[in-house]
Amino acid sequence: MPYQVLARKWRPQLFEEVVGQDHVVRTLRNAISMRRIGHAYLFTGQRGTGKTSTARILAKALNCKDGPTPNPCNRCDNCQEIIRGNSLDVLEIDGASNRGINEVRDLRERVKFTPAKAKFKVYIIDEVHMLTREAFNALLKTLEEPPSHVIFILATTNPHKLPLTIISRCQKFDFRGISTAEILTRLQQIVEKEGISVTEGALTLIAEGAENSMRDAQGTLDQAISYARGRIEERDVTDIMGIPEKKSLFTLTKNIARKDPLANIGLINELLERGKDPEWLIKGWQKWFRDLMVVKMGGGDLISLSPGERKEAEDQAAYFSSRELLHIMELLGQARGKISFSSQPQIQLEVLVVQLSSDFELEDLASKEPDLARVYQKILDLEEKLAVPSLPVKKDMDPPSPRREEKQPEMTPPNAGKLRERKKEASEEGKGLPRIQKREKLEPRSEEAPVIGQADEFSQKWELVVREVEDKRKSLGSIMQKAKILTVENNSATLGLEKVFHQESLKKKENTRLIQGVLNKFFTSNFTLHYVLLKEGKEEKSEEILSRTKLADLVARTIDLFQGEIVEDTTRR
């Protein structure tokens, strides 16, 4: 007899053998016992969770010689034919290869005929979401009112692709992902009956790597048996699946705590050279940080770890704050999506470990300037909830003239004068945002365009300058895009450049003439630019300047948005 893979050999043949789907099994068994049998069922869920197996068991339960019965005998001719897949009355149709309207029309003609031997004619349509829209439309009427001897069982991994008109005509059952513990229990039963020698760690790795799919777990076990040719060890499973060992994840995590990205880059290169899968590396790392977070919150009993792993988790959880753990998990989630579609996953992993080893922005700010950090957090929350829009620039308009244009009176918001003054004061406060000083009575202002921070105004116009220069000379515009705005004064701005070549290019006579000509359209005629090379330490200073400038303008926009008012901070006295 030819060899039969474990997934087929150990396919469930009775309702009680279906793993992890008690809610489905109970409903179907009760419906059969009460003779409340529907005419159409829809089984949805991820791969390998028992949808097709349950459909076959249901077909046997309906057509067994003793049936309809919730406990098919598996011995009568009808049951045996369904098990072998050659029953004339139970037809399995692949929706991917029979997806057209002609196939559905043929099916509609065949349902009129009575069963050859059994009580019911059962049509199991797998991957039904692959049918065309026309095929679905042709199936609608038959699916809603089939002959009394016909039952449809539709199965799909993508129910969102089905028309609502199809879903509404079926009894829908959602097959859940099978838990790791349930998969592990089933695998232990299989290896015991098959006489397979395997370590508990190896079997656990197979169950975890299956990602809630029983069929995937059985397929990996089959592969491991052939690979090991004897006792299956944990290392055999990691080699097959490309899963990194736990000790590698422990080391990567320690290096993050030590702020040592170079050590992690070296370790990642070593793991990839040994054939480890980048996606499995991220998945395993995510699960480990999830365990650290649970331990950090005092929920160590909620995770399944060996004594050694539990001790390691407790030690490593102390390296990080809860906020840092959430930040790290967020970065890992973003990297997982990028790696899945990247042609160079190694580079994505190296960028990730550098990000994970960098200082956590908000906590670092809070330790240096707690007042500024509190306001910064509030602004971030407001920006996320309200999505403060930036000033629009119409594509079909010419670049704005240096002269200020008049606004229509009805476009000016109430209290415009006070709000402009408040925004200006907020921009000038900069670093000391929380400690706003009380000022004298506001002087009335003319009805003109709102005044924004000087640096922010330059930044907006600078984008237009760069765009126009790039249209005239693309290479020059590309260099200007890389420049960083360091300081802005009345009639000049200082830009930081990372390369000497860029500084020399911008200072060339023909380039200077072109840039100055464009500048004159947006600024006064005597506005000048100064270029400096960014050195170590100076770039950090420029980032602080930009951060404070942007923060000041965000506060000003918030005041404007909420019709707010600047008051004196009396708590500091």
What's the arrangement of secondary structure elements?
Blueprint: H1 6-9, H2 22-33, E1 40-44, H3 51-63, H4 77-84, E2 90-94, H5 101-110, E3 121-126, H6 133-144, E4 150-156, H7 164-167, E5 171-174, H8 180-194, H9 200-209, H10 214-228, H11 234-241, H12 246-257, H13 261-273, H14 278-296, H15 307-317, H16 322-340, H17 345-357, H18 361-368, H19 370-386, H20 416-429, H21 454-472, H22 474-482, E6 484-488, E7 492-497, H23 500-507, H24 509-522, E8 528-533, H25 538-561
Parallel strand pairs: 1-4, 1-5, 2-3, 3-4, 7-8
Antiparallel strand pairs: 6-7
Helix pairs in contact: 3-4, 5-6, 8-9, 9-10, 9-11, 10-11, 12-13, 13-17, 14-15, 14-16, 16-17, 18-19, 19-25, 20-25, 21-22, 21-24
Provide key terms for this protein.
Rossmann fold, Helicase, Ruva Protein, domain 3, Zinc Finger, Delta Prime, domain 3, 4 domains, 5-stranded parallel β-sheet, 8% strand
The overall average pLDDT, rounded, is 80
Please, how many domains?
Answer: 4
CATH arch. level architecture of the largest domain: 3-Layer(aba) Sandwich
CATH topology of the largest domain: Rossmann fold
Q: Tell me the overall shape.
A: elongated
What structural class results from the helix and strand content?
A: alpha/beta
**Percent helix range:** 40-55%
* Strand composition percent: 5-15%
Radius of gyration: 34 Å
Strand order of the largest sheet: 2-3-4-1-5
The span between the termini is 91 Å
The CATH superfamily title of the largest domain: P-loop containing nucleotide triphosphate hydrolases
Q: What ranges have pLDDT less than 50 throughout 5 or more consecutive residues?
A: 387-416, 425-452, 536-543
Biggest sheet architecture: 5 strands, parallel
Q: What's the CATH C level of the largest domain?
A: Alpha Beta
